[in-house]
Amino acid sequence: MLNKHQQSIIGILQNSPSFPVERKRLEETIGGAETELRQALGGRRTSLADFYKLQLRFISRKVWAAQLLIVMGMAFLLHNSMQGQRANIQLMMLASLAAPLLVITGIQTMTRSLSRSMLEVELSTYHLLDKLTAVRMSLLGMADLLGLTLLGALLGTWTDAGVLEMVLYLLIPFNLACFGCLWLLNRVRTPNCGYYCLLYCCLLVLLQLIVSFNPPLLLLNSSAAGRGLVLLLLSAAGLVYEGYGIRKTCRSLETAAQGGV
């Protein structure tokens, strides 16, 4: 029930005269507000380079340190493993282990952006979720490829392997690791998704270890370059497909969050 003071205030407001509104001045006010809003948003707009710098600071330094340790540790391991008649093939197989390991270092960064625990924070930012995710994915991917390129250069110095062989042995595991993680991110939208991605990459590493110490199981060699190229193209196509799927996932999450407001 309303008390007497509240009833009196409501009565005064209801009986107060309403002044006529001029249509022209109302439109001028709305137009001025839109102009001010566009100017304010324009001042906040950042260039693509600045946006990448901002997202570079978002990724923890521990991620970059882990990637550096993986590359340095793998280089040390390869340097001490150069012996035997099949040294070249085994070296490339061992070097290919770095691909899923490098992907593992960035899993937490990707999964926390799409998990329920961080989703509200991500959606409250000025930029769209799909744009944030795409930039972070590209930063992590470029860092991974830089590390693999360094390992490839070392392999080219220490072995007589050709460029095509090194590309196949390094990029196919990398594509498969990224494809599997993106597939999981697009379909498993729970806080435990990161653990599923970690388990998948660990299984991929285990499979590579088994193949590297069992020469008859080797799928890639000098006489199977065509088969390796087909596998590389298929894995790249799957990676691109799931990459576009991440955009749809981000937009569906944004739509669901807005509908729940």
Strand/helix succession: HHHHHHHHHHHH
Number of DSSP helical runs? 12
Instruction: Tell me the quaternary state.
Output: single chain
Helix/strand/pairing class, anyone? mainly alpha
Helix content: over 70%
The first-to-last residue Cα distance is 30 Å
Q: How many strands?
A: 0
Shape: elongated
Report the uncertain regions: 119-124
Largest sheet: none
Any idea what the radius of gyration is?
28 Å
Strand content: under 5%
What is the mean predicted local confidence, pLDDT?
Answer: 76
Keywords:
12 helices
Short description:
The chain is mainly alpha-helical and 261 residues long. The two termini are 30 Å apart. It has helices at 4-15, 23-44, 48-58, 61-79, 87-96, 98-105, 107-114, 116-123, 129-158, 163-187, 193-212, 225-259.
What would your notes on this structure say?
The chain has helices at 4-15, 23-44, 48-58, 61-79, 87-96, 98-105, 107-114, 116-123, 129-158, 163-187, 193-212, 225-259. The chain is mostly helical. The chain is elongated.
Q: Secondary-structure blueprint of this entry?
A:
Blueprint: H1 4-15, H2 23-44, H3 48-58, H4 61-79, H5 87-96, H6 98-105, H7 107-114, H8 116-123, H9 129-158, H10 163-187, H11 193-212, H12 225-259
